[in-house]
Amino acid sequence: MNWQADWGLRFRMFLTMFLLFALYIVFAGVLTAYLAGGANLLVFGMLFGGMSLVQYYFSDTLTLRSMGARKVSADEYPQLHASIERLSQQADLPKPKVAVIDSDVPNAFATGRNQKNAAVAVTTGLLRSLDQEEVDGVLAHELAHVKNRDMMVMTIASFLSTIAFMIVRWGAFFGGGHGRGRQGGGGVVVAILVSLIVWIISYLLIRALSRYREYAADRGAAAITGNPSALASALLKISGEMDKVPKDDLREEAEMNAFFIIPIKSGVVGRLFSTHPPTERRIEQLRELEREMTV
């Protein structure tokens, strides 16, 4: 395997985490100043500190369960296990957990906090829609996410964004609305408004990183398999199959867009804030890689 470190991705991951942590230091300062009562802040800190640890150490299990994914054995899916084991060896990675989602939506994702605690999940719709070379291309793309360690950054960044979003929704409950001056209802309103701003900025930063990491994973898949055209063909098929899936099924899984190989589109706004670059550009990049390998 001709694997090359993607320094563009590494820089973007570092920059995203640096900006997010700087943003949340300011965020914590505002909460300290405006949320009423030290007891409330202590409860808030303990609650979200505990949630952070659970999210980090059990991110793979939580993600799989949220998507209805079931871990499967080699006896149940021998070809899938054999492919992941072979591609993991080619990528110099430990074999991840293997899971399957019973869904007509053709898609796949990788999750986990590091290379030793990763999982790759595919839908039954994907296994039915693609031939073996195309499935290998998709699996290699997900393993490239594991190799690049961008899953960990996305997990942490997404959780930090979720904290701000939950304060926007439940700020009045935590603030209580009691007390005087800044510690009264006005302070709660300020905290909620700041949380909203923090959530929007976090949302945009995560999506900017997510779009670039998809290009990096496509290049990684080409390096692992040596067959960029297989992934390009898979992307074309998956994109076409999406249009045939009932909208209710698509809405059920849209919340996991940042982790899927192909995003679930939801109109103009969905495309504007998409977690993925356009499929056409990804295919163009893969075809250019194919030409380079041929030469």
From TrEMBL:
UniProt record, GO biological process: proteolysis
Peptidase M48 domain: residues covered: 78-289
Subcellular location: Cell membrane
Cofactor note: Binds 1 zinc ion per subunit.
Names of the cofactor(s): Zn(2+)
The protein's enzyme class: hydrolase
Active site (catalytic residues): 142
GO terms for MF: metalloendopeptidase activity; zinc ion binding
Name of this protein: Protease HtpX homolog
Gene it is expressed from: htpX
